[in-house]
Amino acid sequence: MKIRWVPAYNAPVVLTFALLAFAVHGLDVMSGGRIVPLYFAALPHFDFRSPWSWFRLVSHVLGHKDTTHLVTNFSMILLIGPILEEKYGGRALLFMILITALATGVLNTVFFSTGLMGASGIVFMMILLGSFANHTPGEIPITFLLVLALYLTGEATSIFHHDGVSHFAHLFGGLFGTVFGFWMGGKGGGKSKSAGAAKTKAKAKA
Q1: 151, 104 in Cβ contact below 8 A?
Q2: DSSP letters along 9-50, please?
Q3: I want to staple 104 with a disulfide (CB 3.0 to 4.6 A). Which of 64, 97, 121, 175 is the partner?
Q4: How far is CA 64 from CA 7, 30, 104, 162, in A?
């Protein structure tokens, strides 16, 4: 077995997402905390004429209030994300990330009076989506039910706690992960599927 010492950019969507979030955090620290509230937080007061208001509906997933918030979210994203990207493909995962970001941004702006920042909704989307990794169409995975019980029940009971955490964003993220999980079914458009097909063809030729 030959060991490769050169790091591989094995999950482009997830790694680029993480690099952008860390870059935004670095710029925010250097600016004294002025960058994220202005450009990377979904604000409750929406200005239809401002391009930045539209931008923030999605960009809020790149902004984090501190290093702990950032590291906590991306520890999970970097753990689960590459598996999902390999299974479903980069384009599909990017689509799911953008839709979840936009939906949580819009819902927070419409229904709540507080700002929203951070990739927590994406984390919960990935957690629920990951529970469908071996999903067979027409069946409900037990892993999904266990994850639902462990994570979303805890979030639901914390909704009205004033702890500075957007539990609704977590719930919305989990909801979209569930929808995507049932929608994608047992399908996978990533590397694993194409690699398996290549191996099958090779065996057939042999």
Answers
A1: no
A2: ---HHHHHHHHHHHHHHHHHHHTTS-HHHHHSSB-SS--TT-
A3: 121
A4: 27, 14, 15, 18
- The SS3 of residue 116 is strand
Write 137-146 long-range contacts (CB < 8 A, 24+).
137/185, 137/186, 144/178, 144/181
**pLDDT block averages, 10 residues each, the chain of length 206:** 70 96 97 93 89 94 93 94 93 95 91 87 90 73 77 63 58 85 68 45 44
Which pair of structure tokens corresponds to residue 23?
């870059």
Cα distances (angstroms) measured from residue 105 to each of 32, 92, 112, 197 = 24, 20, 10, 39
Tokens of 70: 């950032």
Give the length of the chain.
206
Which residue shows structure tokens 């694993």? 192
The radius of gyration computed from the CA coordinates of the chain, to the nearest angstrom, equals 19
- The fold of the 12-186 domain, in CATH, is Rhomboid-like fold (1.20.1540)
Closest CA to 83 of 134, 118, 20: 134
pTM > 0.70: yes or no: yes
